Amino acid sequence: MSHRNAMFILVGIIVGALVGILTGWVFGPSMLAVKWVGDLFLNALKMLIVPLIVAAVVSGVASLGDVRKLGRLGGVTLSYYVITCALAVLVGLIVVNVIQPGAGVNAAATAGAEPALPEEAGISDILLSLVDPNIVAAAAEGKFLPLILFSILLAAALTTVGRRGEHVIEFFNGINDAMMTLVTWLMYLAPIGIAALIAARLGQAGGGAAFLKELQAVGAYVLTVLIGLALHFLVLLVILYVVAGRRLDYLAGLARALLTAFGTASSTATLPLTMECARESGIGERAVRFVLPLGSTINMNGTALYEAVAAMFIAQSYGLDLGLGQQAIVLVTASLAAVGAAGIPEAGLVTMVIVLNAVGLPLEGIAMLLAVDWFLDRCRTAINVWGDAVGAAVIQRLAPDISGDE
């Protein structure tokens, strides 16, 4: 995509987001009439995800040539994910302990009826989610970890079977190029789709006045999450500058992806655009194809931070004092639960059950978060995508054998 067209789409996305906020705020529930437009755009993005992930991961891993290099690359990638995710949770815990947003909240009156929640999950469920007996069914259900693992193993096998494997790799390279062309075409519709998504969601909240009332009820909690996300954004920015040697122009290059992540509340739906923006910002093909698809599934910094803050908020609102040992458990389980969170809207609420169960907090406390979670979900999704993009730049610098194009 040319720079001129990219700027045109960026301006369009900004205008679309502002139009969505204004119309949803003023006209309220009547804007639910345009919900189908946003759903159509979101579904079109999701339609590209499965073939894009398979093609990008296979071509990216296969481009390494010698599969033994994958061990070093995988180690650097996973180390980055673990460190930044732990930093995100740590930032969240510090902020929530300082602000104490749940102090003085009457949880019994606020929580109301217990919401419908999934069955209790555990850390073993996250580990089991790496392998699925039917990857086609897993992909259809939005379980992308098994699909990524299979794609990595398939690419590794293809690099070992000689010329026949090279033909198959070329096939996946062609699919990857075609998918990126489809992404470019779809991005011209992004301003309309994002405007409809935001307007309809504000309309579902009852308009601007109703949303303000929701904010007042849990305003300190919302502020705490936003401060934590902002601080972690700056932490990632420092890592980007110090380790990868990149300036603010990289952030500007990712602006379209970040705004789309906010509009769609889905890091996987945003993945095609994230990959395109990273390429345009100078990230090599190998880093883009391997790091970003993997990161969109397991690197959920914003989600991990949110889950830690939310767990502490629920504890504070029930008058429960979590010590350092219990907060350490929150740190570990929030990081692991974020890995298991699907890159779809409000998936963090599902994996929140793992964190609450780990420290014995009441699950009904989640009901206090439902009114504003749709807004916070968009904010943390943008941080998730930013973390993936920073990871691609950092890993390209730390693993130079993937730094170049093919």
The CATH architecture assignment turns out to be Orthogonal Bundle
Name of the CATH first level: Mainly Alpha
Helix content: over 70%
CATH topology: Proton glutamate symport protein
Cα Rg: 21 Å
Unreliable stretches covering 5 or more consecutive residues: 108-121
The chain-level mean pLDDT equals 78
CATH superfamily: Sodium:dicarboxylate symporter
Total helix count?
19
Structural class: mainly alpha
Number of strands: 0
The H-and-E topology, N to C, reads as HHHHHHHHHHHHHHHHHHH
How far the N terminus sits from the C terminus, by CA atoms, comes to 19 Å
Strand content: under 5%
Overall outline: globular
Total number of distinct structural domains: 1
What order do the helices and strands come in, and which of them pair?
Elements: H1 3-27, H2 35-62, H3 69-99, H4 107-111, H5 123-128, H6 135-140, H7 144-158, H8 163-187, H9 190-204, H10 207-217, H11 219-244, H12 248-253, H13 255-264, H14 267-280, H15 285-298, H16 301-317, H17 324-340, H18 348-358, H19 370-398
Helix pairs in contact: 1-9, 1-10, 1-13, 2-7, 2-8, 2-9, 2-14, 2-15, 3-11, 3-16, 3-17, 3-19, 11-16, 11-19, 13-14, 13-19, 14-15, 14-19, 15-19, 16-17, 16-18, 16-19, 17-18
